Each structure stands twice: as structure tokens, then as C-alpha cells.
């Protein structure tokens, strides 16, 4: 298990309940309440579920008391998320005692992993639905309404939900995620995702372009192409096997929808990000110069135990290549401290690699075992917890200094910023992001969300740029 200390997910959204649809005029006799936990894939999946439920006459609500269906879309990556979900299910069980007609279901990765426990041992839910089984929700709801326990956690080699247009719930109307693939083939020894989300399969390119184009036409100005490992996207036209779309091809085609549509992507695996992708990023101004390049460890020995398929030296060459082709590219990463058998020398290798790469953003964790992973079966979790936490604290402290210096280097510069909305701290200020994914706060004036403006950076904190607009783009 990866115990989080610094944000890897937007913690303000963990457990968020979706509100009514933006601009929705239809009234619904049945209401569903859904909370989402974990990575952005889960939040995107909740929007797919909302679309399926809407076709069945269900509308979303933030008030659990008026819902006839309660769903928790869950994550198995972190023990903290599982503990939170169990606590919430216990609370919903009490509501169900007052309202026996209420149906409670668990979706996603935790459903896949703990189906028997949730249904039979702890008797907390009526339905358990895996991430590849959302299309069967209507039938499962019908089955659960008869008093039966409804389960579908079968994994698929084909399901991409490519024909389902996700309902954009709680959207800012400016940025959106577009899922381009599902599953993962990498089998990193610490990770449970291949067992809960199945093998990689790429969504057909036409449906991705249609969704991104529709978002642009509705006023969205940024899309993030989403997948467990987007760089391995590979779609073969079923009508003509000679027509192949790689991730670089897809990235270009999305960028060509409009120069006003910003394009991001997440997440990359270092072994799969190619020169072709980097040159495509360099070619188009609207493809953001920001790459999430998970390192996990700076020690070649630990990387081998993690089954990451690259060495320290290879990773350094990849960083060098990115900076050669994209000199101004921002980098973020994931770091795990205290993996099985990690020594002080291994830890210092991680620290020195962080020094070399100078990440703009890092998601940092200490390791603890997740049931069902290769590491749980093969290795002993033998680094004492206090050592893991001490090493993590050192990594966090190192990165904090790097992050502040990265922000300070932007003071005095002017950036193109996409306005995402009003600042949470002041109604008189707007916030947006730079190409490098840095948040910028600046006075509102007469600007509106969805516009591009030039902002000169006057000051900064460790996590935010503070500036003044010099005009619209």
C-alpha cells in the first residue's frame, strides 16, 4: 500500500458527492447519490455511471436522505481510502435501517478486491460492481430491488465505454478529462491496478475525437487524456489493420481540433514515452509542456524489485531527452520510500535523482503492503515503519525546497493562463493554470472563466503564483 503524505489525488474531492447536472432541466422521480474516492480515473468513471443511470431515469443528488440509490466509487491503492469507505458504508447502513428500500452499492477497484467481505461477511452493501461492469447496473439494480445480492466484478478485455458520453458533474465548464484507455499491463510489483482494472485496452480514436470536439463546442478549453499508462495507447482499426493510431498520433489529432483547446495527458510510464510523443508536444503550442514521469525509486536495485523495467541510468537519459527536445518542460513524479529491502544507500540514490531531475511537483509516499500484489507474494515488507517515515520526511523536505525554487524562478515572467474560475480565497481574484500546470491567482477585472489571459507573475508561495493580468491573449 502507498500511504500518502503529499497530495497525489485532489484531497478536497475525496468522497465528494456529485450535485445536479449543470444546466439540467429534467426532473427525476428516482435519485442517486454517489461519492468518489481515489484517482481521476475513478471520478471519470463516476461520470460514466451517471450517464448510464440517467438513461434509467435516475437524477443525481447531494442529499443522501432523498436518494433511492447510494453508490461509492472506490479505490484500492491506499489503505486510508478503504478505511474511509468502510466507515461511510457503516453510516449508510444506519440510514438503510430507517429506509429499508434504499439500495447501497460499491463500485470500482475496492469492489473488485473485496466483493465477498462486503456482501457476505460484513453485510454492508446490496450491490458490488467492478470497473468493467457498469453497463450492467440497470439489471443489477433490478436484481437488488428483489432482495437479492447483485454482483458483477468480471474484468473485460474489450470494455472501454467508448460509446458512452460521460455526464459532466460538478464541472467548472472549462477543463475535462477524457478517458482514452483502461487497464494496465505493467505489473509493477507494488501495484494492485492490473488485478482490479484488468489488461490494457485502447478506446477507438473516433469516439475520443468526438468527445473532445463536443467538449470544445460546449465551451470547454482544456482536456486531459486519461489512462493508467497513456503512452502505450495503440488502436488498430478493425476495418483495416494497416491503420494504426499511436499515442503520438492521437495527441496530434486532439491538438488539431482547435488551437484554443489545451491538451494535457496523464499518466506516463517512462519506458513508453517516445521521441515521437515529445516531438509532437514540441510541434503544437496547445499541447501543454508538462509530463508526469513516475520515478518511484532512484535505486536500480529497488527498481528491479518493483518490476519497473528501467534502471536509474536509463531514467536519467529519459529526463535528458525530454529536456533536449522540450527545454522548458515541467516534470512531476511519484516517489515511494521504504520499499522492501531498501537500504540507506538506495534511499540516497532516490534523493540524488530528485536533485538531478528537479521536479516541479512530486507525489510522495511510504510503502506498505497491498494484498494481492506481486510484492506481497514475493517479498518481505522488512523496512521498519519509522525508517520509512523518516526517509519520506527527507524526500518531502528536499522536494519542498525544489518546488519553492521552481516557483521563484517564474517571478517576473509572463505566462498564458487559462482562467478556471474565482479564487477560493477571494471573490475579487480569479485563478487559472499555466502551460506547466502551476496555479496562478490574479485580480478579476472584467475577465471570465474559459478565457486565456497574459499574467505577469509578481510573487509566489511554495504552491501558487501571484500576478497581474496584462490583457487577453
Account of the protein in words:
Residues 408-471 form the TRAM domain. Helices cover 33% and strands 24% of the residues. The model is unreliable at 1-12 (pLDDT under 50). Helix 1 links the parallel strand 3 and strand 4. The protein has helices at 40-55, 79-98, 109-121, 137-145, 193-197, 205-217, 247-255, 275-283, 300-305, 312-325, 344-357, 374-378, 385-408; strands spanning 2-4, 16-17, 30-36, 58-60, 69-74, 103-108, 127-129, 150-152, 175-179, 181-182, 201-202, 222-226, 234-236, 244-246, 262-266, 290-292, 330-337, 361-367, 414-422, 429-433, 439-443, 452-460, 465-472. The radius of gyration is 22 Å and the shape is globular. Strands 2, 3, 4, 5, 6, 7 and 8 form a 7-stranded mixed sheet that branches. Strands 19-20-21-23-22 form a 5-stranded mixed beta barrel. Strands 1-18-17-16 form a 4-stranded mixed sheet. It has 13 helices and 23 strands. The chain is of the alpha/beta class and 473 residues long. The longest helix is centred in the last third of the chain and has 24 residues, at 385-408.
